[in-house]
Design a protein that fits this description.
Length: 413
C-alpha cells in the first residue's frame, strides 16, 4: 500500500488533524480539564466493555434507522455542540451542519459557535440550539426567542458550566481570542500555511451568536468578554423552571451526571437528559458518562430520553451505550477532526464510517433494528468478566421502542 493514507477511523482522522492544524488550535479542541483524566476515562470506559456476539440469526434486512422525539433519524447519533469549531478549521460549523442534515441526524449548534443561529438554519433546517445561561437574563431570553423564530425544535440547556474548566493546554499555549502573537506561536503558524491561508480568507472566528448584544463597533476582544459572561453560575432549578415555561418545544438538560439532578430535571419538565461531563473539559475528576448510564436510566425511568455524550468514537461504541440504557449518543470532537483532516467533505466521510461500523456490529450481534441492541450482552473486563445482564438490567427490547416510537395516543409536548 506504500503511501496510502489511513482515514478509516476517528483516531486516524485525529492524527491527520493534529498534523494539519497549529498547536494552539488543535489543543483547544483536543484538550481537557486539569490532568485530562476525565478525557481519558471517557474513552477507556468504552474500551473496557466487550460485546458478546450472537449467531444463527438472519440479519440481512437490518437497519440502523430509528426515531427520536417522533422524528426519523438514519442512526442513533447526533452532533454535540462545539464552540469555536471554525477556529480549528474555517467553515467547520457549516460543513458539519450540512453533513448532518444530508445524513438525517440532529445537529446541535453551540451558542459559542462562530456561525449564527439564523445562518446555520439555512444549512441544517432541523438544527437544535444549545444555550448557556449567562449572567444577563435579557440575552438568555433573546437567544431562546431567536432559536424559536429560526425553527429550532429542541433547546439544549447546558448546566455544567458554573465556572470555566482549567484547561492546561490552553494556558501553556497562551490561548486567547483574538490570538496574541508569540515567537513560538508565530513559528508554529508558519508551519501550517494551509490553515493560515484558509483563516485569512474566512476571517478571524467571532462569537457570532452574541455579536448583536455587543453593538456595531464591538471588537473581537469585547465579544470574547461578552461570550465569557455567558459562563455563569446563575442557573438553578428556579431558573430552569422559568426556561421550561418559556420554551414551547422539546427541552433537554445537558451536563447532568448525578441521579438526583437527573430525576429532578425530568420532574420539572425536561424531555430528557444529556448525560455528559462536557467532554472532560470541566472537572478532571469527573466520572465517565458511560459508567453512569445504568444508574441514570433507573433514576429517570423509561419514558424520558437518555442521550449519552462523551467518548463515543465508533459504531461499536454506539452499541455499547444503547445496551446500557441510552437511547441516543452524541459525538463532537470527531467531526472537527474530520474537517481539519480532510476538508469540508470530512464530516460526510466520518458519518459513512460510523454508519458502516454500526451496521457491521449489528450483524455480529444479531440485531436487525436499533431497539434490539437493548438486549445485547456486555462483558466488563474491569470486573474480571462479570456479564452483562447485570450491566444492562435497565434495558429490555421493548423499552427503547416504547419511548422513541410513541403510540398514536401518546401526548407530545
Amino acid at each position: 500500500m506504500g503511501g496510502a493514507i489511513n482515514n478509516f477511523t476517528v483516531e486516524a482522522l485525529r492524527d491527520l488533524a493534529r498534523r494539519r492544524t497549529p498547536r494552539v488550535a488543535f489543543d483547544y479542541l483536543d484538550g481537557g480539564a486539569g490532568d485530562e483524566s476525565a478525557l481519558r476515562l471517557n474513552l477507556e470506559s468504552f474500551t473496557k466493555l466487550k460485546l458478546v456476539p450472537r449467531v444463527m440469526i438472519n440479519t440481512t434486512q437490518r437497519s440502523a434507522a430509528h426515531t427520536l422525539f417522533g422524528e426519523p433519524v438514519s442512526m442513533p447519533l447526533g452532533v454535540a455542540p462545539i464552540g469555536l469549531a471554525n477556529f480549528v478549521w474555517p467553515g467547520a460549523d457549516k460543513a458539519i451542519a450540512k453533513a448532518a442534515a444530508q445524513f438525517g441526524i440532529p445537529y446541535i449548534l453551540s451558542s459559542a459557535a462562530s456561525t449564527s443561529i439564523e445562518e446555520i438554519i439555512t444549512a441544517a433546517p432541523k438544527t437544535w440550539f444549545q444555550l448557556y445561561v449567562g449572567s444577563n437574563p435579557e440575552i438568555v431570553d433573546d437567544l431562546i426567542d431567536r432559536a424559536a423564530d429560526a425553527g429550532c425544535s429542541v433547546l439544549v440547556v447546558t448546566a455544567d458550566v458554573a465556572a470555566p474548566g482549567k484547561r492546561i493546554r490552553d494556558l501553556v499555549n497562551g490561548f486567547t481570542l483574538p490570538l496574541k502573537p508569540t515567537v513560538r506561536g508565530t513559528i508554529d503558524l508558519a508551519r501550517h500555511p494551509r490553515w493560515c491561508m484558509a483563516t485569512v480568507r474566512a476571517g478571524a472566528p467571532r462569537f457570532a451568536n452574541v455579536e448583536k448584544y455587543g453593538g456595531v463597533t464591538s471588537s473581537a476582544l469585547s465579544l470574547a468578554a461578552l461570550q465569557a459572561a455567558q459562563i455563569s453560575g446563575r442557573l438553578d432549578w428556579q431558573e430552569f423552571s422559568r426556561l421550561r415555561g418559556r420554551w414551547r418545544g422539546r427541552l433537554l438538560l445537558k451536563g447532568v451526571m448525578d441521579t438526583r439532578d437527573a430525576r429532578r430535571a425530568i420532574d420539572l419538565g425536561a424531555d430528557g437528559i444529556i448525560l455528559s461531563n462536557h467532554g472532560g473539559r470541566q472537572l478532571s475528576s469527573a466520572p465517565s458518562p458511560l459508567d453512569l448510564a445504568r444508574q441514570v436510566r433507573r433514576a429517570i425511568g423509561s419514558s424520558a430520553a437518555l442521550i449519552l455524550d462523551g467518548g463515543v468514537r465508533s459504531g461499536e461504541d454506539i452499541c455499547k451505550a444503547l445496551a446500557l440504557g441510552a437511547d441516543f449518543v452524541l459525538m463532537g470532537r470527531p467531526f472537527v477532526y474530520a474537517v481539519a483532516a480532510l476538508g469540508l467533505h470530512g464530516p460526510s466521510h466520518l458519518l459513512k464510517i460510523v454508519h458502516d461500523e454500526l451496521s457491521r456490529a449489528m450483524a455480529q450481534l444479531g440485531a436487525c433494528s436499533i431497539p434490539e441492541l437493548a438486549d445485547v450482552r456486555i462483558i466488563d473486563t474491569a470486573l474480571a468478566g462479570v456479564s452483562a445482564k447485570a450491566l444492562s438490567e435497565a434495558a429490555s427490547p421493548g423499552r427503547i421502542s416504547e419511548r422513541l416510537h410513541p403510540s398514536p395516543g401518546t401526548p407530545q409536548r
